[in-house]
Design brief:
The chain has 7 helices and 2 strands, in the order H-H-H-E-H-E-H-H-H. By secondary structure, the protein is mainly alpha-helical. It starts with 7 loop residues before the first helix and ends with a helix.
């Protein structure tokens, strides 16, 4: 999830799907945002992805809806504000909702998912002792910066950061 579903979350979804597939993990990875649906990614986002062989030109923004949250085994926001958006729609999703940076950081601290461990059990370990109040405000430790409106180098930096974070998450889920 991200703000407009034009850059960060569709990029993260595409990259995570690729990293999971390379590890033989069959998963459906979707993205959404709080903005209106049907919009195209900015040209700067498409250009920044070109070096990775990712083409999001057919992507159109999707608005976050309760049904998407209900059907998701894991909900990943690009920033704390997106976690709060999910919780405002359905507070029951808290145990399976993280920012990408938080999930990777906590996951690496507790260790990868064990071969006999289902996702919800691993998320329970990852999220132990967390509190929704920790998602108040903004924090560089949890938030992937939004490049929209910035220079091309900001888009490239975001894509590079998301590629690294999603690769690390795929390794944790393997």
């Amino acid at each position: 999830m991200c703000s407009a579903n034009l850059c960060r979350s569709p990029t993260a979804a595409e990259l995570l799907g690729r990293h999971l597939a390379r590890r033989g993990i069959d998963a459906v990875v979707r993205s959404a945002g709080r903005g209106p649906g049907g919009h195209e990614p900015p040209p700067q986002a498409l250009s920044a992805l070109g070096g990775l062989g990712v083409d999001l030109s057919a992507h159109r923004s999707v608005t976050l809806a309760p049904a998407l949250l209900e059907s998701a085994d894991l909900i990943v926001g690009m920033a704390r504000e997106h976690v709060r958006d999910a919780l405002a729609i359905d507070a029951d999703v808290w145990p399976r909702t993280f920012t990408l940076k938080e999930l990777v950081r906590r996951g690496e601290a507790v260790g990868a998912r064990r071969p006999d461990e289902d996702l919800s059990a691993w998320l329970g370990r990852v999220g132990a002792a967390r509190s929704p109040t920790a998602m108040l405000g903004a924090a560089a430790a949890d938030d992937v910066a939004d490049p929209v409106g910035g220079p091309p180098r900001a888009y490239k930096a975001t894509v590079k950061e998301l590629d690294g974070l999603t690769a690390r998450l795929a390794a944790l889920l393997d």
